[in-house]
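Fold tokens
===========
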Amino acid sequence: MRVVPDNLSDEEFDVWLAKRGPFDNWKDADIRDQAAPLWLIGDNDRPLMLQNALVQVVGKEKSAKTFFTLEMAFCIAFGLKFHGLDVTQGQVVYILAEGGIRRNYTRVQALWSKHEAELQEMGYTSLEDARTKTGSFILLDQTIALAASSKEDPFSPKAFLEAMGDQGIKSPLLVVLDTWARSLWQSGGHESDPLTVGPSIQQADYIRKKLGGTSFAIVAHEGLAKNGRAKGLVDLGGAVDCGIFCKETATNSGVFEFTAMTQRHAEGGYKITAELRKPLDGPSVVLVSAGSMSAAAKIAGLPKSARAWYDALASLGKPVVTVAEWLAAGKARGLVTGKEGQPPSDKAVRTAMERARKGLVAMSAISVDGDGTVTLTPDAMEEPEEAGAFDVVDADGETDED
């Protein structure tokens, strides 16, 4: 498949196509000029998602497909490691055509919570701030009628590309269609309709080329054969460059496996195992794997009292503070209460702080220097043995959708 140069206008695209006939022989020099395949997520040893590829994420209902795919998109958009894997950073368009944009947005907010420490280090103060400043994470709730019978259809690929151009979205690295079924329905067909499936695959490739070689990820339900392929015709499975199969390890376990079963240009079989956990104050669950647990997730997993003292320390806005400043912050937040409505004694406050300090030092969340100063060290934290502020959520909890 040819790699289209980035940022071509319609006129430039037509000129580029005219330079080669559809059946022209590829000369060795022309092939050498093509960029080598790169990974959006992973590498040759841990291949997950290829650049400029047609990608399928498939699994039965409640297999955490959307949780997984949404985090892939989130990490690409903001340049964050994805469950320990390197990513190529770039603009992402995510089409959430099921479940409603408001409800799905809580999942994005939960991803902000999971990766908050890293994002704040990048200078972003909130999810809205990160999305506004980067323009890298575009959310839509209208699917594309990939097999639209008319180019004048307001939901056709042509209309989608025009809307992207109007908004300055020229060459995203990834477009996610969640779900494949919704797009086929929008076109008046279904997963077993050859007059819809084939043209939809062709139009997905057309969109990829027009956007300069973007990857196009399709979220699909598993077929009745339960062989890791999407529901309906096998055409989709045969066309994809990367296929990721999602499944729960055991009924209502809340633990999921995500396996790169299909890799056209690498060895398949790379697997990520992750558990759905929900911060006590978070709006939704997130997938947490041991290799990817961010500093924010680890902090959220602290025991409640230690987390409160950690938050008091962080609220001072300085990486290094004195013990006196930390004590004052804890007292101001009312972390220790006195008897019969009276203010707590200084001794009681210090005792509570010392108890929290020992636990935080043991987990490497902070370090205490000989001069009595305290330093935040969340990146060095070990994963807490118990979830603490994370609840394990089974598949019937908050995962009534994918």
In short: Residues 383-401 have pLDDT under 50 and may be disordered. The first strand starts at residue 39 and ends at 42.
